[in-house]
Amino acid sequence: MKMSLKPSTIDELQQCVQQHPRVLARGAGTKSALSRVDATTQIIDMSDIRGIKEYEPNEFTFTALAGTTLAEIDALLAAQGQYLPFDPILMQAGATLGGAVASGLNGSCRLRYGGIRDFLLGVCFVDGTGALIKGGGRVVKNAAGFDLPKLMVGSLGRLGVLTELTLKVFPRPNARLTLRVTCSDLTDAVNKLYQSASSTWELEALDIEPPATLLLRIAGDENALRARAQRIQNRIERPAQVMTDAEEKDYWRSLAEMKWLGKNAILVKVPMTPKRIADFDASLLSYSVMRRYCVAGNLAWLAWPVDRPLDALHTLLLSMDLSGLVVFGPANRIFLGKEISQDLIRRVRKALDPDQRFPEY
Predict the structure, then answer these.
(1) CA gap 137, 125 in Å, rounded
(2) Which class would CATH give 260-337?
């Protein structure tokens, strides 16, 4: 088994890139499918390039090295009453800041404030020549130059090795509450999702848990939450269970940690629209696939059984003009379904990685 390279400084990282013909960075490996490589590619373990370099609570920004775990950042922010509103996934599993940005993945509770792309202010990364590149800045109003930070979100490590990142953060809500609404069927749940998404309820999360349960999460002042929840329940006109405190927190954390998948599943992300949920869900019934519709129905998470060929899902997504990204689990590909145009990325790759040190997608 090939040993990973494990630089402890930026200089060592630059040498690793320059001295090896094919490399790919990996953080904690929580999204294993995204860092799977063939025998010709050398893994660069980023776990020693870690630490929080700067934190300005009054400015609501921090800068940290890419190998820093999200759990460490979350603890630091919590001490100052702040948090990461894009709801990072797999934080308790050890996910790193660099991995979160490179994967571009967010949790259900990104609904109100946006995804990680909306919070990333600045990046530093090593390109395919071994040069250290900087983009963006450390203040919210910085808008000079080409928007490299946005480009690195979801790049999967194929445009450069992230080394340092600056993000803005938000005040942590005093309390949260979740309404678990029982609908008559999936069509009813989707209709209520439309109603909720177009409301003024300021929801933190809006998910459908098949077959017909709608989850609505709100946050704010603890004394006002119950009254807000009652108003929502009166408008939505369906039976609802109220979750609060530890039960509520554990529920959403288990979702962000993907514990609902169970064992022996391949996690697949499928961009979605609410109007397509019913047809898509019906097409999955014969495959016995656990699934969840998140972010007001704009994202589906699938737990594809490992004993079923992934080609079947690829064909299904193609037939519905949908695309999928394999996040973890045994898989021989990371992209499924409809092919997304890579023309812009190819041009950027040519500029940042002229010697093609980073593998193809």
Answers:
(1) 13
(2) alpha beta
